[in-house]
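wait is this the right file?? whatever heres the structure
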């Protein structure tokens, strides 16, 4: 039996990197005091998200490098914990030098995993280039996958990570409340409900431990819904911050919980890929019928 303790943060982050690191240091201290092995920080925790989802290509956070001084600073702070964080990654030739909306998982040993957001909502594509894959990676707490915000609206994303062996998936978000017909109480907002439903569904359908971090408060013209949480492989929320800033903390024996969930109703085991929309890699191409 190996119990791991997960902490998921709901916190606000802006453009000032020193202020971001001050917030991160405070969250790390609180997570350590709670015995956490993993701390999930939100999307864009280093340098802030876009201040508006309107078309504004000039509104881009500071661009950082995966091997740059900011990530090295986070590595030094992480020590024996696994810490995930979102940031704006400097573009490259493949992206036409447009930045990526990215995240990394680090420990004191260095960078363990790296993901570039694949799915882009609304006008995010005017500010960022898109990633093109989902891949799991090994960490001291087990095999893990990562995604960013809107990625979790696509069941294929979490399924790809689970098929690649991830038993823990961390989703980092800057998820806002609805822009139209916003509810008087943030907990009742339809986008808050969707955020929570996606978290529970992705955990349940893949029978994995799901760790969800989100920005909180306001940034630019957005109200962020917070709602950081840890969800078990049965889709049950073990702890949540609700719509307030804070830390959700829960302890799970990952292997025991995942194995127990999959023992009789094994969703990955019982898949029938050849029956689904699309063509499996090992299947012959489907030739469409001629129109009569």
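ok assuming it is, sequence goes like this
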């Amino acid at each position: 039996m190996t119990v791991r303790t997960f902490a998921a943060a709901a916190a606000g982050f802006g453009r000032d990197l020193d202020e971001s690191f001050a917030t991160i240091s405070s969250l790390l201290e609180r997570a350590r005091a709670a015995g956490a092995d993993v701390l999930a920080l939100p999307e864009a925790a280093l340098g802030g998200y876009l201040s508006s989802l309107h078309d504004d290509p000039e509104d881009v956070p500071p661009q950082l490098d995966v091997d740059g001084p900011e990530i090295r600073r986070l590595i030094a702070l992480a020590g024996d914990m696994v810490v995930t964080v979102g940031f704006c990654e400097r573009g490259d030739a493949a992206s036409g030098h447009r930045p990526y909306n990215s995240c990394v998982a680090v420990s004191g040993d260095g960078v363990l995993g790296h993901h570039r957001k694949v799915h882009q909502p609304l006008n995010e594509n005017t500010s960022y280039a898109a990633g093109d894959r989902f891949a799991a990676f090994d960490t001291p707490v087990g095999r893990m996958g990562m995604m960013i915000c809107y990625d979790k609206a696509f069941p294929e994303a979490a399924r790809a990570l689970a098929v690649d062996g991830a038993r823990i998936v961390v989703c980092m978000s800057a998820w806002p409340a609805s822009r139209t017909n916003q509810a008087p109480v943030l907990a009742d907002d339809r986008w808050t409900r969707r955020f929570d439903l996606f978290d529970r569904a992705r955990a349940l359908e893949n029978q994995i431990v799901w760790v969800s971090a989100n920005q909180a408060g306001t940034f630019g013209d957005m109200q962020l819904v917070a709602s950081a949480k840890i969800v078990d492989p049965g889709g049950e929320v073990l702890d949540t911050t609700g719509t307030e800033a804070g830390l959700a903390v829960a302890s799970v024996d990952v292997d025991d919980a995942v194995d127990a969930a999959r023992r009789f109703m094994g969703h990955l085991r019982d898949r029938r890929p050849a029956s689904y929309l699309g063509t499996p890699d090992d299947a012959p191409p489907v030739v469409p019928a001629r129109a009569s």
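Helices lie at 17-33, 69-78, 155-163, 190-206, 254-262. so i think its the right one actually
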